[in-house]
Amino acid sequence: MLAMNNFFLAVFIILGSGILPLLFLWRRFTLMKTMASLGISVGCLIGLIDAIFKLSHGADLTASTSYLRAFALAFRMDGLSTFFLIAIFFIAFLSAVYSWQYMNNAQKTVRVAVHYLFFSLLVVSMALVVTAANMITFMLCWEIMSLSSFFLVVYNYENEENRKAGYLYFIFSQVGAMFILAAFGIIYSHTAGFGFDAAAMLPETAKALVFALAFIGFGSKAGVFPFHVWLPHAHPAAPSHISAIMSGVMIKCGIYGIIRFYGLLGWHAPLSGYIVLVAGMVSGILGVVYALGQHDIKRLLAYHSVENIGIILIGIGLGMIGISAGKPVMALLGFGGGLLHVLNHSIFKSLLFMGAGMVLHKTGTRTIDVLGGLIKKMRITGVTFLIGSLAICGLPPFNGFVSEFLIYIGGFRGAALSQTDFALSLLAIVSLAVIGGLALACFTKVMGVVFQGEPRSAAAEAVNEKGLSMIAPMVILAGTCLVIGVFPSMFAGMALRAAESLQLGYGRVPLAPFMQLTGNITRGALLFFMVFGLILVLRAFLYRGKSVTASGTWGCGFTQPTNRMQYTGSSYAGSIIGFFGSLAPLEEDHPPIAGRFPATTHYHSQVHDIAERHMQRVIVTPVLTAFDKLRWLQHGDIHLYIGYILLAIVVLLFFV
Amino acid sequence: MTSVLFVFLAILLAPFYAAVILKVKAFFGGKKGPPLLINYYTLVKLIKKGSVYSTSTTAIFKLGPMVSLCAAITVLMFLPIAGQPPIFAFQGDIIFLLYLLGLGRFFTIAAAMDTASPFEGMGAAREAYFPIICEATLFMILILFYVMSGDLSLAAYFSAGQPAGFWKAAGAPLLFVVLALFIVMLTENSRVPVDDPATHLELTMIHEVMVLDHSGPDFAFIELGSFIKLFFYSTMITRLVCPVTLGYPAVDLVVFLATMGVVYVAVGVTESVMARYRMDKVPQFVLTSFALAFFATVISLEFLK
After folding, report:
1. Among A397, B5, B256, B259, which is disulfide-ready with B82 (CB 3.0 to 4.6 Å)?
2. In this structure, are residues B43 and B224 in contact, taking their beta carbons and an 8 Å threshold?
């Protein structure tokens, strides 16, 4: 117990700061808000420092306590846990700071107080999920995590769309949890214990089944295609700092589950890697294609989470293939790259959600095509959003590149193998390249349409940039993107240490060659900055004493340009969406212009998500019909309900 | 030392070679054409001028030319010119360089979107679209090169007598690679049949329309950057077409520069005998390069085993 003291201290501080506002502080709004966000951030900071310290010392600690006298609640901190803890506490810390001004809504004091309760519960439950060491603990924390995030998603419950989003999320998280429970059930039936460690003793077929069930369960939390349907609904509904946490770290708990189970089961058949890799490629490409077609900035970012989960899974899948093929270096590259991308994505995605939150806060809209020119009045938001965009596109010298680089190298190692391994590695590399290109198209669209050009509506014109507590987290995150991008060695080392703690049966691999790889990125980035500096000096020299004048944009001879003539996000993405025609069906509503004096017309377009469409057709409708037929079971007669319970117990007696 | 010299030589010669294309096109058109030094005159003229900035633009508009030129020059430092080892090389540098060119593209597009011009937006959308397929092609070629050489750096592919080794190992399928690279070069550098740098209608352009609002030294940076980028791609093709090195840098350089000329003439001939494709046909054309690279990789990796 002693060894994990700091961790539990952090957990209790966070939890306490969440409960306090509801108990007696809600009458004094500002005080309540300050106490809550300050307390949560202090708790997160303690947890963060502790996690960094533990990871660098390679600690492997356990703690346990009895719960209800029947079950043991056990916790364990190893390299993998601490790595995820770093991401969780770092993002939660900044989100708590951000929330201080974002939640400036004195009319809804109680609601804000409730929000802080669930906020703290979410952070704590995520921290406990990644440290849970037996099934009961894990499931308990997992459910608290799902439920608290559900209540945060329906924060604005007056809006019907948000309620629907919450409902959808609720169903997906519960069905996902059922799959995880089923996986636990199979382990329990073989080992007759709630511990995780015995899972490695399972017979091979049971392992495959457990892995598949767990993959579906965790995949639905992580947003793996086609279980991602809730993601683009829930993220826009939640307040922006909650979207940042959910997209940045909560869905990563799904990734944690997949990696943890892979490590626990020790099922190293090639099939495991193939499943994960293919799921990653599909999620990656389709996620970014659907993102391109979105009109809502937060929905777009949510689809990018699907894409990045795809990239992470590609890394992990390559790592698994590396293990099954007996190539430890490839395995470490894949796992290390995937894990580093977990950290990187949590950083730039929360940065982008916070930027989107700032835009929403100041303009009151999330629709990309009515914005424009925001960077002129929201300089810091614009610049940090630009940095976030560059990072998410995986461009050097920012952090997204580093993890993709490691995954690429892992993929190339895989391409030197034979047959299926070769074919899948080849596809993985090409998918990564295509994902990178599409992400670039998507984020030039967001930058270009939202932040650059001229404002397309009055809402976009009257903006300002105030709120230090909202700006500071974005600046810190943007700075982190750059620091990891230029000096990745330390962070890659952390990811590799986390991957090593899985003990995947290849012994110790020297880390020096990996450090050399990332050291080269530093050298390359510094070279780039040097050349850039030279060009900067050259440019200043060339412009010395020159006349520099301002004028309107060249309209190619058109004399009456208006701001509404600018290229919109829909037209920008149109041709690329068209290329993926059948995968991303585009629905357009556009009455043709006819006659000499045409009436006003409109244009509306929507890109459909095929997973959503088919899920509706294949699962939702049949299930509803089936349950409709069973309606007679629920008749409202209490005696018969008691009869059901009796019957169930009697039937169970026969089996148990 | 020779390598540093060669990089400067490349920067110096890139505008000259671009003019070769113009000369060839003029020849096919039965005209005399501009002098071979035309691009130097243009650059000098642009550098002497001041600039006009659109009131819609921000600092990103000024960053665009600098970043794209910076990316192009950095790439040159990793490029083995005439079989000479480059100034810098590391394991995986080619991925870094391709993404660095992507960074340049991001900023070129962002600079275009900065002007609020519908035409530049149109060009930007195309510039974002077509290179996606090119990247897939390039990575497919990289896989082939990686499996054959066990290395992931330009230095290992194009210096120390390596392209010759590729020919020995892979043989004829490498012709597909040359063709695929040629298509990628045409696409990435906005040449006919993907884009027509000489057309007069903004609606039909890609790259030229994106830089409409740039002027003065900024525009000179953009021009120089695109000459260097073209030089980069044609260097790779040249080395594949003429893989031999004799070990005397001076002789190698002469052979290299002559073959470079041939590649540029080929670009010019392509431009003269073809028309630009309709915009919706371009992806099919670029996809051809992917198919070629894919077959080259699969065929030669089957034979190698």
Report:
1. B256
2. yes
**Cα gap A413→A547, rounded to integer Å:** 54
Asked if A464 contacts A377 with a C-beta cutoff of 8 angstroms, the reply is yes
- What residues of chain A, 371 to 390, have a C-beta less than 8 Å from chain B? 372-373, 375-376, 386, 390
Which pLDDT belongs to residue A603?
A: 87
Determine, yes or no, domain membership for A318.
yes
The answer, for A543 touching chain B at a CB cutoff of 8 Å, is: yes
On whether the CB atoms of residues A153 and A162 are closer than 8 A, the answer is: yes
User: B100, A572: Cβ pair inside 8 Å?
Assistant: no
* Whether residue A534 is found in the same domain as residue A618: no
Kindly tell me if the per-residue pLDDT of A317 is higher than 90: yes
Does residue A167 lie within any of the structural domains? no
What is the phi/psi pair of residue A67, to 5°? -125, 125
ipTM for the predicted complex: 0.96
Type and span of the H or E element at A606: strand A604-607
Residues of chain B scoring pLDDT < 50: none
pLDDT in the model for residue B303: 66
User: A438: domain range?
Assistant: 268-506+513-538
Instruction: Tell me the three state secondary structure of residue B54.
Output: strand
Task: Tell how many helices (H) and how many strands (E) occur in chain A.
Answer: 25, 5
In whole angstroms, give the CA distance from residue B14 to residue B37: 11
Local confidence band at A505 (pLDDT 50, 70, 90 cut-offs): low
Long-range contacts of A27-30 (CB under 8 A, 24+ apart): A27/A109, A29/A106, A29/A109, A29/A112, A30/A106
**A412 in contact with B, Cβ within 8 Å:** yes
Strand A586-589 to A71-77 pairing: unpaired
Cβ-in-10-Å burial (0-12, 13-18, 19+) of A62 comes to middle
Minimum mean pLDDT range among A106-110, A261-265, B121-125, B222-226: A106-110
pLDDT in tens, B235-269: 999 999 998 888 888 899 999 999 999 999 999 99
Residue positions counted in chain B = 305
Is B125 near chain A, with CB under 8 Å? yes
Q: Is the pTM of this model over 0.90?
A: yes
Domain boundary among A522, A538, A554: A538
CB within 8 Å: A567 and B122: yes
| Nearest-by-Cβ selection for B74 from A412, A436, A531 | A531
Do A395 and A486 fall into the same domain? yes
The Cα diameter of chain A in Å comes to 95
pLDDT at residue A1, rounded to an integer: 42
Query: How many domains is chain A partitioned into structurally?
Result: 2
Return the residue in A390, A528, A537 with the most chain B beta carbons within 10 A, the one to mutate for interface testing.
Answer: A528
DSSP per position, B136-183: HHHHHHHHHHHHHHS--SHHHHHSTTHHHHHHHHH-THHHHHHHHHHH
Q: Structural domain boundaries of chain B?
A: 2-304
Within 10 angstroms of residue B241's Cβ, the number of other Cβ atoms is: 18
A117 falls within a domain:
no
Residues A530 and A619 in one domain: no
Residue A457 lies in a domain: yes
Alpha-carbon A99 to chain mean position: 19
Q: Dihedral sign for Cα B181, B122, A605, A440, please.
A: positive
* Residue A591 DSSP label: P
Of B50, B96, B139, which is closest to A547 when you measure between CB atoms? Answer: B50
Does residue B211 belong to the interface with chain A, where contact is any CB pair within 8 Å?
Answer: no
Q: Which residues are registered as beta bridge partners of A587?
A: A606
Provide mean pLDDT across the span A79-108.
91
| Residue A622 touches chain B, beta carbons under 8 Å | no
Tell me the pLDDT tens digit for each residue of A205-243: 999 999 999 999 999 999 998 899 999 999 999 999 999
